[in-house]
Design brief:
786 residues, alpha/beta, MutS, DNA mismatch repair protein, Chain A, domain 3, Rossmann fold, 6 domains, P-loop_NTPase, endonuclease, nuclease
Length: 786
Amino acid sequence: MNEKSLRVLEFDKIKERLKKYTNTGAAKEITDKLVPYDNIYEVREHLEETREAVRLLITKGTPPFEGIYDVRSGIMQAKKGSVLMPVQILRIAAILRAGRRFQKYVSHREDEESFRIIEDICMGITALKQLEDKIFLSIESEEQISDRASSTLYNVRKNLRDKNASVRDKVNSLMRNYSEYLQDSLYTMRGDRYVLPVRSEYKAMVPGLVHDQSSSGATLYIEPMGLVNLNNEIKELKLKEKAEIDRILQELSGEIYDNITVVETDADIIWELDFIFAKAKFASDLNCTIPSVSEDGFVDIIQAKHPLIDRKVVVPMDIYIGKNFKSLVITGPNTGGKTVTLKTIGLLHIMALSGLMIPARENSTVGFFKEVFADIGDEQSIEQNLSTFSSHMTNIVNIIDKADNESLALFDELGAGTDPTEGAALAVAILENLKKRGSTVVATTHYSELKVYALKTKDVENASVEFDVETLRPTYRLIIGIPGKSNAFEISKRLGLPDFIIDDAKESIENETLKFEDLIQSLQDKNLKAERYRRESEDLKAEALKIKEKYDDKLLKLQNVRDKTVTEANREAKNILKEAKEEADNIMREMRELEKLGYTSDARKKLEEKRRKLGEKLDDAESKSYVRREYVGEELEVVKEGEEVLLPSLNQNVIVLTEPDNKGEVQVQAGIMKINVKLKDLRRAKGTQKKERKNKKRESKLNLRSIPSSVDLRGMDSLEATYVTDKYLDDAYMAGLSEVTIIHGKGTGVLRNSINDMLKHHSHVKNYRLGEYGEGGTGVTVAELK
């Protein structure tokens, strides 16, 4: 995106507002670098992450950013092996704590709303709870090391406190002895040593070391000889305390150095989350919504508001373009809001394409444009030594050189600044050229020729800004489909111009022109009603669709709960019956043992008969306890390995992996799951006649059960991951797997890019894609094998 348009449309002011919601300098730097993304996938993902952050703020409250700081300088020093200051270590621990709390913050139960993108981001956080706890245990504040940091430090400080108490007792005793020679009845400190304030004329009466004197020379600060040894011991203990503190700081810095990669990654993720939640807070304060993004350049923004205009006075407008027309010509009086309309369209697109929600109503749509060009009138002053017309033409030349079918071009007063006839002709030619290129164009003008051009030309539409003749004020409402009326006569009459002058002016204008102006007014009134009805019907339709989707989801959840309940009940019943059978067998074994001790063969026969009857009853109970569905379809008497059959209980086709065992059960593969089912529960797959797997060439000697459906590459470098993936794809292909999942994590994206580059040219891979919701998102790649 060109920087000129970002500046003209005042995107920098939006970023300055956004920075107020961040907690760290690192997040502010991310905000400074924010520009529109250059592919639609990134735009949608970053809009979705903002929506998720808003939902988290609503459902879970303030995110756990307490106590975090920008610790990049501390991390850089730690990477070099330097010993960190207590404040730096403490702030790094705060980052680790915030990361660990964030994982808990985004976690959710199975029945709760999930947050796919933010959860994927938080997957990169590695908790270092042990290091975090050790730091908070060792450091009390930004300047104070805790006594609990080590037993040595605790003992040194305990001894130091005892020595200080002894010295104070000794000093108080000496002060009483020398009270008549002291300037004040208070002791003081000089260089961490206890001294007495002795009057200079009595210095010989207090034997000791002179450390200082007052400015007047009347007082000498003497350390009595009886305190020298005690002061020396205190000094020695303080040196030991400092040495132990230095050792503790070095040890903690060393542990940070040992885990520096994790610390750096956690910090980067926290700063990214800080930026994401700043976007969410910004959106909440401005009452923004998330728009859809159209690949075809279709724009339909409902009740759009310029985010930099006071919310109490800004007038919302409806903007749509790109479906039936791709060029919009806006006419109307000066100060009517034409320039604001242009800036609103441009700025809201830049915001949305940068992953920011926009101040508009739900169900709004923005177009995906790789470039937004803006030739706004108030930018002419930056052009040196150029007239208004030359300034505009310089900008327009640049736009025409670069515009294509993925561009949005905004022109303010197109063709102005020169002869009206020539200016209008140039404006029509410019619009026609951009229309042929497929560019989306919005232009404001005063030229009547452009109104006629828009009326006559396909894919070009008129629009106007409404003006209230009664109050002589613009309403700032945009009306699409109707060209603007000048209202010159009405305004002049309201301002007091005599009627005879207005009548003379009307006579000098062709009758057809006056009729055209009256027709515009009539169409304007009808269009307002039609537009209001259309919007109301669209809102009702959108609301109905939302209600339908809501109840469809509820129905699906109820069905899933029902099926899950039935399955669990059957499993529990089977377990009870199995335990009952085992208990019966144990009883029979015990009976046989008893028989050996003296029971007759008649008793044994009776016991066997009882066991048989018990078994029949248990089997009957099992058949009754299993809730069976009446499956429609041709039952199978025999199946072969590799045959595709229908499993009605899952309502999907599965692949037979084994032949029936002595219990009449076969193992089948349903997607990535392998399950055992009874042969009688299988049906002939629709459209197949004992269809075997298509790829007979892939009859492998590999055991299918031994090849997993996914491979985890996290923690590997690119070279190792590529080698492991290549070998895994060979094994999966030989085992007959049709689809595999490659887990590489989100991280910085380096590992994902390396894997995707390899998959492009791999002989076994048919196609591949990033994971969807529920599969792992951008942290996995799903490959379909040939």
